[in-house]
Amino acid sequence: MTSSEDLVPDISAGVTTPAGFRAAGLAVGVKASGNPDLTLVVNDGPAEVAAGVFTTNQVKAAPVLWSQEVLKQRRLRAVVLNSGGANACTGPEGFQDSHATAEKVAAVLGVGAVEIGVCSTGLIGERLPMDKIIPGVDAVHAALARGAEASLAAATGVMTTDSKPKQAALTHADGWSVGGFAKGAGMCAPNMATMLSVMTTDAVVDADSLDKALRAAVDVTFNSLDVDGGTSTNDTLLLLSSGASGLSPDPAEFVAVLTAVARSLTRQLQRDAEGATKYVEVTVVGAIDDEQAKQTARVVAEDNLVKTALFGSDPNWGRIAMAVGRSGITMDQSRMDIAVNGVTVCRNGMRGDDRSLADLSGTDIDVHISLGMGAGRSTVYTTDLSHDYVEENSAYSS
Amino acid sequence: MTSSEDLVPDISAGVTTPAGFRAAGLAVGVKASGNPDLTLVVNDGPAEVAAGVFTTNQVKAAPVLWSQEVLKQRRLRAVVLNSGGANACTGPEGFQDSHATAEKVAAVLGVGAVEIGVCSTGLIGERLPMDKIIPGVDAVHAALARGAEASLAAATGVMTTDSKPKQAALTHADGWSVGGFAKGAGMCAPNMATMLSVMTTDAVVDADSLDKALRAAVDVTFNSLDVDGGTSTNDTLLLLSSGASGLSPDPAEFVAVLTAVARSLTRQLQRDAEGATKYVEVTVVGAIDDEQAKQTARVVAEDNLVKTALFGSDPNWGRIAMAVGRSGITMDQSRMDIAVNGVTVCRNGMRGDDRSLADLSGTDIDVHISLGMGAGRSTVYTTDLSHDYVEENSAYSS
């Protein structure tokens, strides 16, 4: 079986690499800046199987409520996404705006609105300029295409504070592909950075298998990225299968390829987290179970004292130990080892090798925590807490 | 009944305001800087009732393990506290150091070591310089005194990155008093800021009542301060009763006075949080119960996107709504109102009054969240997330 870690997706390719998909992204006037702000991805079939994961935030944006509802049929013909406005905390009128957007896309495609997913990202609490979006749908529909340029345009239309578009695709040796794009920088964080992603495949996969594969891939990729613990009102990931390759992959192979593409997108999100100067992998091993390992890794990844120390290139294991101790998991401090960039600075809960041996001057930092309690393990991807993070997030909406 | 909110403690008085207590603080060489680093508080009785609360962190410093053990007898004759070293993650040898410190204090006082509380604060993972601490106990014992100077010296000896000593005292009209000092800037946060506090009273209070009163006071004061979610390995609060006034207060009156002094200390901690430029009160009302209200207030208080917005004087209610939604409580977004400095910027989960009406240019910010679900309420005190926070916490140990 192929391991997802051994697969290297192509980041010059994206959402139209799988057969059966067209896409486009344009500036239609939602953003005052004139930057691209509307993306459309269309599944030309023959199949139209879909799966999705959504924010766990109880304050859900209108497009999330819409997309969750239509996804109950596990079929999507298209996804329309706008940047420049989150359409969150906009009440019943905001929901009508999402509905009207879906109806418009359905009309131009000649299908039903229940086959259209809707995503939005931007400032919370403002209504969308529907006088821009409705004619914008006509324009973006007219621009639909396949190929590298179309994939890139689709990835660009969803950008907010992202500094670059994020996409990836991978074609299995048997001939089927997975592609996709993403935007954001964490599960909300920083700034207004809703995480939106559309992934596509031309593999023949039934709805149950597609859903299962998506959840398996997301668990170790998007859901293991934690820049600052935020969870946006708008986070959405939709996976569409056209079945256009006519090929039915081995389920494990499909998960491996899907995970590889999702991991590439996740790493691109991590690298583009606003203000980040360090890219940090927190790995916890030896927990009672995987869930406790992930909980520990998350608390460490979100701890501001740990994050500021890493910004200062300081292997301050005392702060890491403090964060582990407050994570609420089953532990024994005398069994805990902490290694930073390969140097075991804490051994058996006490000072280990000299902290000056740990070189944190580069951009990549590996924090490895061994609890010695069981076989549970998990890795969480995060960043440091820098001056630029504070600057970009304090200056955003004012 | 007196409300604790109406009582104004005297911050030029402190731990020796109640009769029966002597204190001292000196520089004995634990800190390389030559600043004060050893404090001793002695209860001369006639009673020696004690209560305490400790960190919930599972990684506990040696002095915490020691003090938790001896406090089982609910009697303390003295508390010895050092700054300049946390004695955390130091293994069995570190525990022996705490034990030896207690034995030395017991010897000079002619009592048993089980009557001596021990507290430490400073960098994690380093052994204490016992060659400084043991003779230091003789010096600080020789300096024991009553009065304003002695109280201030005791409050000064525990300072780490604190910019000023923190103390308060209040004498009830009936003639009994409560006093105390504290150090730190949150429950760990920021920096190495362990929260240590010793409080004293000359009221006659039995052990059960003292413990109950302490927990009631702490819940709405120290445990409602949340600078960055940290929980130190060393957090300790010890309350000692000498009974020297001979007066037995009404239990509710005692809680009110104790709470007033604890609140004064808490506000001093909040005001001295490193890097803070804004002092924020997050109040949640209308939750299902008080516990859910506190959970919501904590998540909002710890949210980096909220904290950076407040640093930028930005009433960004969308981020507050996002934090409420991810707090895991029972809610309905259409019932949620959010007011910032008195302006209801979010009403029924949607945009309310114009955000430009909310003036956040001052140092004090009031965030008031109404959930409309029940009668639960809670207030949490926090600060913003500023450049200085990042600077001070990234530059500390390297």
List the helices and strands and how they pair.
2 copies of one chain form a homodimer.
Chain A: E1 21-26, E2 38-43, E3 49-54, H1 62-70, E4 78-83, H2 91-109, E5 116-121, H3 130-142, H4 148-157, E6 166-171, E7 177-183, E8 196-201, H5 207-219, E9 236-241, H6 251-271, E10 279-287, H7 290-302, H8 304-311, H9 317-325, E11 337-340, E12 343-347, E13 350-351, E14 364-370, E15 376-383, H10 387-394
Helix pairs in contact in A: 1-2, 2-3, 5-6
First-to-last CA distance of chain A: 52 Å
CATH superfamily of the largest domain in chain A: L-amino peptidase D-ALA esterase/amidase
Biggest interface, which chains?
Answer: A-B, 66 and 66 residues
What is the class of the largest domain in chain A in the CATH system?
A: Alpha Beta
Question: How would you write the strand order of the largest sheet of chain A?
Answer: 13-12-11-14-10-15
- Proportion in β-strands of chain A: 15-25%
Roughly how many Å is the radius of gyration of chain A?
Answer: 21 Å
Element-by-element helix/strand order of chain A? EEEHEHEHHEEEHEHEHHHEEEEEH
How many β-strand stretches of chain A? 15
Question: Can you describe what's shown?
Answer:
2 copies of one chain form a homodimer. With about 400 residues, the first copy, chain A, is an alpha+beta fold. Chain A folds into 2 domains: about 270 residues, L-amino peptidase D-ALA esterase/amidase (4-Layer Sandwich), CATH 3.60.70.12; about 120 residues, Roll (Ubiquitin-like (UB roll)). In chain A, about 30% of the residues lie in helices and about 25% in strands. In chain A, the strands form 3 sheets. A 6-stranded mixed sheet of chain A has the order 13-12-11-14-10-15. In chain A, a hairpin with a 2-residue loop joins β11 and β12. In chain A, α1 crosses α2, α2 runs parallel beside α3 and α5 packs across α6. The longest helix of chain A is centred in the middle third of the chain and has 21 residues. Chain A is globular, with a radius of gyration of 21 Å. The relative contact order of chain A is 0.15. About 0% of the residues of chain A have low confidence. Chains A, B: It is an enzyme of class 2 (transferase).
